[in-house]
Amino acid sequence: MRVPVLFDGEGSGSGPLSWGQLENWSAIVKQGTWLPLGGVKPLPAGTTIEEITGELRYLMSRYQPMRTKLSFEPDGTPRQQVYREGETFLDVVDAGDEDPEKVAESVCDRWRDEELDFAAEWPVRMAVVRKDGTLTHMAVLVSHFVTDAAGALTMMAEVASRVTAPVAGLQPLAQAEWQRSPAGQRHNAAAQRYWEGILRSVEPRRFPAPASVVTPRYWHGEFTSPSLARTVPDLAAASGLDSSTVLLALYAGSLTRVTGVDPVVIRPMVSNRFRPGLAGVVCTLAQAGLLSIDAAGADLDELLDRMRRVTMSAYKYAYFHHADMAALVDRVASERGEPVELGCYFNDRRGPVRDVPCPPGESTFRWVGSQEAPSFEPLFVHVDNVPGTLQLTVYLDAAHLSPSDGEAVLRGMEALATG
């Protein structure tokens, strides 16, 4: 059964994508997925369909990215259309004799596998599962195109308390308008000059040639480190840096020790929410910046000091027009005769509370899985808080870095931190 849900919100119009949206759209196209976020949650006893449709109506009405569809120029360039009002649907699924939680999970699994038509569909799918006439679980997936992690935290807090104050900050259409202004174009040009300086100064090959062919090619692992959870806050306090920058310095130091490649070139994910009017906006703003750091032979204090000096520019210029920057990268590759490998990423996904108390414990590493497809970047490390520890998640392409070296990079970060 499908329950229609009408919505009506503030703001509408059409225009080009914002820089954050363009970055996210490029990932959607490259990975061949609508990047669904979300999953299953149990519902309190007595929850009604009217309560859930009310939540869906609130989401669609309050957040412009929820009521955005795309159109495409003949060359494939996307444009956004924000609708003031419209209709969506809540699916109601009867579990029958099956476990309702598993039914909800199967709904999410099916939706993840299905394509989403961004020109015809809203970028959110929601369902409730009913068992013997009682609602038991909700299944909800929202495209990453709608929001990044920081925006999602704002959205969840506002949904929980049903905030009615006007939405604050620049919405994507307004962001795109500033980005096309003379001030926005000057910033974009400055970001390109900064990037070009790095692209022309480093050796193109950023990873050592693999010693052998590894199959499957793409690997996903997890390293949990209570030692890092306890040590990084102390290093941050002593150095005056935030813990994310400390971890980035440890990452750089470990990379050069494992790979022998220096300087180290990293693309840190930057929230961009320190910019005026963007702190609490529910949208996608995060972009992958670029930094280069001389890390070979540096001790920990030197690494922290060098990272302090390079991150300011890296964060400042992690705000740019994705297609313009891609064209610059291609032009420099053509002029140099080969591309500069830029597939080394770092993403601190921890929320506002980043440094939490952690008891002593053993560090552990495990490979979660390996596959031939879909592909991963050469090296991508994520940071997450999990109960009682700090977790580093690694995704790698064994054609660039072996699984054993990928594990060594994470363990090397802990070794550097603990001396």
TrEMBL record:
Q: What residues does the Condensation domain cover?
A: 56-330
Q: Where are the transmembrane segments?
A: none
Gene Ontology molecular function? catalytic activity
Q: Which GO terms of type biological process are on file?
A: lipid biosynthetic process
Pfam families cross-referenced by the UniProt entry: Condensation
SUPFAM superfamilies tied to this protein: CoA-dependent acyltransferases
Q: Which InterPro entries match?
A: CAT-like_dom_sf, Condensation_dom
Q: What is this protein called?
A: Condensation domain-containing protein
